[in-house]
Amino acid sequence: MRPTHNDRYPALDLVSPPSILTTRTLKFHDEEHANLLNAMWLIAITFLSVGFGDIVPNTYCGRGIAVSTGIMGAGCTALLVAVVSRKLELTRAEKHVHNFMMDTQLTKRLKNAAANVLRETWLIYKHTRLVKRVNPGRVRTHQRKFLLAIYALRKVKMDQRKLMDNANTITDMAKTQNTVYEIVSDMSTRQDTLEDRLTTMEDKLVALQEQLDLLPDLIATRIQTQQEKIEQRRNFLHPESAAGLQQARSVPPGCPWPGPAALPPLGKSSIPSTAGQS
């Protein structure tokens, strides 16, 4: 099977059907131009959004076909421009490399401009203060170079600001937003952990306060128990004094306090002689 003319030239597939329809449906101003080639010319210049106006349709159907062709041509042109611009656009890595190289170049230019400013400042000082006779022409020359160096320094700084502004693309902003979100999430987690630790510490302080409130009663109970133990021990060792103390506790408040019991003097007479018994 031999290829047709449209198979050899695929671009004609977009032009031939509207051209045939236009030939069948529209009427031109004169019958001399009412052929297929002129219809293809009309569709081509309408599709490419040129529109010379040398050949125009007169019927409503032909005008509708021309408008549809123009809309389709505008869409195809926009699609072609978008695809080509996407192919020509730098990737993210290439943008970072380009920005790095431009930053390095601007840094070198900034250093050179700053060195020129310092050099011209020194030369102006040299030719005005360190010479016996001032040469106005040379001083003005160095002043002019000094101003040019200042302007160059300002221009380099402005270029650096523009580069920093252009470097902040949407992708970088999204990455920065993700980083900030991670930092905020980490801070929120740490804050929750800190709140839990503070709550635990508060509970422990409350328990400690309760124990401190119970401490006086415990101390008093302990002292009373200790005193009772001391009394029991004293009663066990000295039953006479314990009986006197018990009697003193049993005496009513209005009665006189009984005198102390007469105890025999401690001496040789009170101690029985073991020798006499023997």
From TrEMBL:
Annotated segments matching region Disordered: 240-278
Keywords: Ion channel, Ion transport, Membrane, Transmembrane, Transmembrane helix, Transport
GO molecular function: calmodulin binding; small conductance calcium-activated potassium channel activity
Keyword Transmembrane helix: yes
Domain of life of the native organism: Eukaryota
Compositionally biased region (Pro residues): 253-263
Segments forming domain Calmodulin-binding: 103-179
InterPro entries named in the record: CaM-bd_dom, CaM-bd_dom_sf, K_chnl_Ca-activ_SK, K_chnl_dom
Compartments it resides in: Membrane
Annotated TM spans: 34-53, 65-85
Name of the molecule in the record: Calmodulin-binding domain-containing protein
Protein's organism: Rhamnusium bicolor
Organism lineage: Eukaryota, Metazoa, Ecdysozoa, Arthropoda, Hexapoda
